[in-house]
Amino acid sequence: MEAIYGKEGVKAGFTTGQCQKDISDAIDGLVAEGVEVIILGCTELPLLLPQTDFTGASGACVKLVERPMCLQDSVSRTQPQRAQRSRRPNPRRSNRPE
User: Residue 60: exposed, middle, or buried by beta-carbon count in 10 A (0-12, 13-18, 19+)?
Assistant: First the structure.
């Protein structure tokens, strides 16, 4: 939590240093447990880990997936018709007064 909310965390404007090391250490622990994919569920995590792959201390590599992309891909795969419809403009909304 310090990596995100601490005095030198992402929310304080830091994207390198201790906050990045803390998150990397946590992911390294997950890699050691055999995790193959990590969903970056907090919107600040991609700021610390902009890459799409992470190589742990053991040399094992895991995929890093941003949550919005994960959800978008999931919806597109499971409900392709709905995903296509959602891309069309909604005529009822375009006539609303601001």
Answer: middle
* pLDDT value of position 7: 94
Residue pair 81/56 in contact (Cβ under 8 Å)? The answer is: no
Domain boundaries, the chain: 2-85
Q: What is the DSSP secondary-structure string of the chain?
A: -HHHHSTTSGGGT--STHHHHHHHHHHHHHHHTT--EEEE-STTHHHH--SSEEE-TTS-EEEEEEHHHHHHHHHHHH-HHHHHHHTS--HHHHTS--
Q: Against a cut of 0.70, is the pTM above it?
A: no
